[in-house]
Amino acid sequence: MREARDEPPPTAVDVVRAANTDGERALSDGDLPAATSAFTAALDRLGDVTGAGETATRLAVAAHIGLGRVHLAGGDIRRADLRFDRAQRLCPAWPDGFYWAGCAAAHHAGYERAEWLLSAALERDGEHGRAYLQRAYVRLRRREFDLALSDLLAAADRHVTDDDARLLTAALLLRSGDTERASAIGAGLPDSAAAVTVLGHLPGAEPTAPRAAAGDTRERELRHTADALTAARRGDWGAAADLFPGDVEGLTADLALVRAVACALGGRRDDAVAQMLDVAVRMPADHRVAHAEAVLRLHTLGAAEQADDAAWSACIGAWVRLLHDEDFWVGWRHRAHRRYGGVVSAAMTDKARTALDDLLEQRLPTDELALLLRRERTAAALLARAGGLPAADPDGAPIVCGPLRVTELGLHRRLGDHLRARPADAETVALFRQFSQIGLAEARVATDRPWAAALAALDMRCPSCARTGGRTHPAMISEPLLCEAGCAEFDDLNPAFCTFTDKREELAKAGAELAAELLLGIARGHITKAEMDLADARTCWRGAITLSKRFGDSRAVTREAVDDALGRARALAGRRDLTDAIAVLEAVLVAVPARDTGERERVTTRLSDLLDRRGVRSFNRGGDAESAHEDMRRAVALSPELPRPRLNFGRLLREMAYDSSLEDGIRLLVGSVDQFEIGHDKHKTDKFREELEDTRGELAARLAELPGQEPDTPEPGAEA
Questions:
Q1: Nearest Cα to Cα of residue 79 among 488, 688, 670
Q2: Closest by alpha carbon to 93, among 121, 129, 62?
Q3: Cβ-Cβ contacts under 8 Å for 217 (sequence gap 6 or more)
Q4: Is residue 719 predicted with pLDDT exceeding 80?
Q5: Which of the 8 DSSP states describes residue 46?
């Protein structure tokens, strides 16, 4: 009889794999909440997986794709696309992320993008049968019948076609004249409403995709739409909202807008907000949609007992979009003129916009939301001056909004590509900053909080990464703190940077540049106020220079710090405040790197001059020889090439010798001679020569006074 043995505990990889399996099972059963929980648990446990390499990456990709499929099943195309994009970035060589992103794009009628993504999946795996099948459906939508037939045949070769797909293949073969193959494929297949619809429309009108509703379903939806419009005309908004079809893609954009308004007026505000956003995604530049959504969001929040920051953020994005929509305000002036019969000036329009802006700001419940509003305004104004964000349609109107709205409409990549295509000028730099977390730092600058702004530029993590990152913010750091690699919120918070391959590095560089600017400004404030704070100024200079070493032009930053310190020292010295002037230069000298000899020399030259001047003044005014000696000694040590500090130091030593004992006087005179000799060798001036000769004479006289020294006279009888 074998001895029973305990099963080994499951590894972290086993736990993650089991969670993914549970998610797949729940997804196939249609249990979306359970699937969400399982895939989320898998991602949470991935942090425990160490040393698994490619296995961990595959598990992460599977979890993200699983969550994307959950969002897709729930109709949240934007969040689904974000998950599939994450899978692509985690492993760009695998086809799955591209395949599911293509499915999501097709589901949202983005057929051109869907075809590109499905083609990308096939480039990575030429045997991906379902990618051929889905691309065939997309090409049918685009009326590319020959290409669709080729894909359907490729899918059939890989045994992934169902009855509908085979009927479609037969229909396309008939269209091309290949009746024999069409008959062979179509023989024995059951009737399919979707495929028959395509057979009936080829080669004329737009083909219906294999999974479209049957004709009677479509007719029923059209009848319901007509009934809904009738109910809306008589003011029965609840009935109108109920009668409209549930699939927004089955409605034109105008009808979808009417349905959203009907939901709002029928008391279903939350449904109305979600539907209005769907319409805004389809019609991002339409000012009617912008107006309706902005008003709806604000009224919904006003009626709610409690609203989270996400709802307020969406409201801010919608309102700023509307306030910067020039077409809307031109129409508003015309409507006001017709209604009131008077001229509505541009000044009156500006006053109305300002009043609405103030109303929104007054209703915001927190200071952080007020910062979001400030950033959103600034970003939208910058984008408006730059001509707006071009529409996907070359003939479409550009969009003007801020980063919150860009995220809400899923325009990240369009914005990122647009900004990267712009010239690298100051306006573009400002746009990159405002359409990212850096804009929130600049919003703090505008509220006169430079230190808070610098800290914000140095910590741009999302709340989730800030909680789980395991790092706190020290007094000063050498690089900004960012979201963890692969964070799903990074693109939402920083849409300007989302299309960079090394987007985290680019954001870190931009944040470090702003932080360095702010730290220099803070240091400038510390040294120019009445009560200088040189310790904080020194900390800020060091921080700015450290950041610039890693991310910018350290020489330029160091030069600016030195310029500020020299300028302040010059002003203080002009007021004869030599001690404070010296203290400023000593503070900046500590921050200047040793290798930057040019900037250090600029500081030491001026510092040497000021020390020399203070030493002369100390001796002449109060006879404080020791203080004067220390200042002049340092002055010579800092700038040995300067003639005046050395000349004055030599003179001081000689003056000090007069009031000293014989031995001390001789020592001081020897030091004085040394200074004059060095100065004469370096500069060859008459002043150094004359001082040297005089001091040598005085030294000889003192030496003669030493005990045991004979006078230098001829002996009797010797020649004179």
A1: 488
A2: 121
A3: none
A4: no
A5: G
3-state secondary structure of 684: coil
The dihedral formed by the CA atoms of 153, 158, 164 and 170, expressed in degrees to the nearest 10: 20
Radius of gyration of the chain (CA): 39
Q: What is the pLDDT of residues 300-333, one digit of tens each?
A: 888 777 788 889 999 999 999 999 998 889 888 8
Rounded to an integer, what distance in angstroms lies between the CA atom of residue 506 and that of residue 39?
31
Whether the full predicted model's pTM is greater than 0.90, yes or no, is no
The residue to which tokens 């010239």 are assigned = 423
The angle at the Cα of 635, spanning 694 to 533, to the nearest 5 degrees, equals 155
CA–CA distance from 13 to each of 9, 25, 36, 519, 655 (Å)? 11, 18, 19, 46, 84
Q: Confidence class of residue 164 from pLDDT cuts 50, 70 and 90?
A: confident
Q: What angle, rounded to 10 degrees, do the helices at 597-622 and 625-638 form?
A: 160
User: ∠661-665-667 over CA atoms, to 5°?
Assistant: 125
Instruction: Indicate the angle between helix axes 643-658 and 662-683, nearest 10 degrees.
Output: 160
Amino acid at 169: T
Count Cβ atoms below 10 Å from residue 472 Cβ, excluding itself: 8
Say which range, 34-48, 206-220, 635-649, has the weakest mean pLDDT: 206-220
Q: Is the pLDDT of residue 187 over 80?
A: no
Interval 588-600 mean pLDDT = 93
404 or 41, which is more confident: 404
Intra-chain end-to-end CA distance of the chain, in Å: 131
Task: Give the DSSP per-residue string, 318-369.
Answer: HHHHHHT-HHHHHHHHHHHHHHHSS---HHHHHHHHHHHHHHHHHH--SHHH
- The pLDDT of 420-449, averaged and rounded, is 94
pLDDT of res. 289: 86
* Of 619 and 48, the one with more pLDDT: 619
Burial of 682 (0-12, 13-18, 19+ CB in 10 A): middle
The whole-angstrom separation of Cα 415 and Cα 108 is 20
Cα separation values, 602 from 143, 539, 555, 566, 639, Å: 72, 20, 13, 9, 10
DSSP output for 523-538: HHHHHHSSS--HHHHH
CA atoms within 13 Å, Cβ hemisphere of 414 = 18
Res 705: pLDDT? 84
Specify whether the CB–CB gap between 312 and 336 falls below 8 A.
no
Q: What's at 358, amino acid-wise? A: D
Mean pLDDT on 477-495: 88
Task: Annotate 419-450 with DSSP letters as a single string.
Answer: HHHS-SSHHHHHHHHHTSTHHHHHHHHHTT-H
Rounded to whole angstroms, the Cα distance separating 265 from 483 reads 41
